[in-house]
């Protein structure tokens, strides 16, 4: 999953970035409202963590512009603990949830998982499909009840596919879920991870749609 982090405080931003990357999310980080706007117009993110107090362009303004463009990705706004009015304004401007600053890392991750599953049209926290079960919170995977260990990159490829069975994602789309702006992309990385996933989870789970990409078929 690819996330945009908008946070102008360098120290806070670095710690949130480390936290999100450790959870296998591909993350782009921008430090002001103008750059956030540019990033949001250029890239289709799965979720945005948006600080509201930003230089150059206010976070609420960025949020309103995003929703005015009919971009529907989940947005979590970050506000100071005592800024109740700002949180309300954020939610009414189209935010889906909020976190309080200073960030509690575990809480932020749980809210991200909740919004990503809602965005995929799911309420249940564990993905179950054709005997394969995937728990994004605990990072546990199993085939017919037998535990399977997946690498962080394999998770990053599998999650967007299994989240929406039937949806075909092209190789470039999967690469976007895997890498942020500054990462090196090797040309066959997606194939390598798909191969690893098929070996561990069975060859039927991820289907190759010729000339288009990959999907987890609907049951
Ligand atoms: Ca700020």
Write the SSE topology.
Blueprint: E1 2-6, H1 10-22, E2 26-30, H2 33-42, E3 47-51, H3 59-68, E4 75-80, H4 84-92, E5 97-101, H5 105-119, E6 127-129, E7 132-135, E8 140-143, E9 146-148, H6 152-163, H7 171-178, H8 189-201, E10 207-209, E11 213-215
Parallel strand pairs: 1-2, 1-3, 3-4, 4-5
Antiparallel strand pairs: 6-7, 7-8, 8-9, 10-11
Helix pairs in contact: 2-3, 6-7, 6-8
Bound molecules: calcium ion.
Calcium ion binds at residues 8-9, 51, 53-54.
Structure write-up:
- This protein has 219 residues and is α/β, with parallel strands linked by helices.
- It folds into two domains: 2-119, Rossmann fold; 127-215, Winged helix-like DNA-binding domain superfamily/Winged helix DNA-binding domain (Arc Repressor Mutant, subunit A), CATH 1.10.10.
- It has eight helices and eleven strands.
- The strands form three sheets. A five-stranded parallel beta sheet has the order 2-1-3-4-5, sandwiched between helices. A four-stranded antiparallel beta sheet has the order 6-7-8-9, covered by helices on one side.
- Helix 6 crosses helix 8.
- The protein is globular and about 50 Å long.
- The two termini are 23 Å apart.
- It binds calcium ion.
- Calcium ion (CA) binds at residues 8-9, 51, 53-54.
How many strands, what sense, and barrel or not for the largest sheet?
5 strands, parallel
What ranges have pLDDT less than 50 throughout 5 or more consecutive residues?
none
Percent in helix = 40-55%
Which compounds are bound in this model? calcium ion
**Helix vs. strand class:** alpha/beta
Summary tags:
alpha/beta; five-stranded parallel beta sheet; four-stranded antiparallel beta sheet; Arc Repressor Mutant, subunit A; 219 residues
């Amino acid at each position: 999953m690819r996330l945009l982090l908008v946070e102008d405080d360098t120290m806070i931003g670095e710690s949130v970035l480390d936290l999100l990357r450790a959870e296998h999310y591909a993350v782009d980080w921008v430090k002001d409202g103008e750059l956030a706007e540019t990033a949001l117009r250029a890239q289709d993110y799965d979720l945005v963590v948006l600080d509201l107090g930003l230089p150059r362009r206010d976070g609420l303004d960025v949020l309103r512009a995003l929703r005015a463009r009919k971009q529907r990705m989940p947005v979590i706004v970050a506000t100071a603990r005592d800024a109740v009015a700002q949180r309300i304004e954020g939610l009414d401007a189209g935010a889906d949830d909020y976190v309080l600053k200073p960030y509690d890392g575990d809480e932020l991750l749980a809210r991200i998982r909740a919004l990503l599953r809602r965005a995929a049209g799911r309420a249940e926290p564990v993905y179950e499909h054709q005997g394969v079960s995937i728990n994004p919170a605990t990072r546990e995977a199993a085939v017919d009840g037998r535990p399977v260990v997946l690498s962080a990159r394999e998770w990053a490829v599998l999650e967007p596919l299994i989240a929406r069975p039937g949806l075909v994602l092209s190789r470039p789309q999967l690469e976007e879920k895997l890498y942020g702006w500054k990462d090196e992309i090797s040309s066959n990385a997606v194939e390598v991870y798909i191969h690893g996933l098929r070996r561990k989870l069975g060859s039927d789970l991820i289907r190759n749609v010729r000339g288009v990409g990959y999907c987890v078929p609907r049951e």
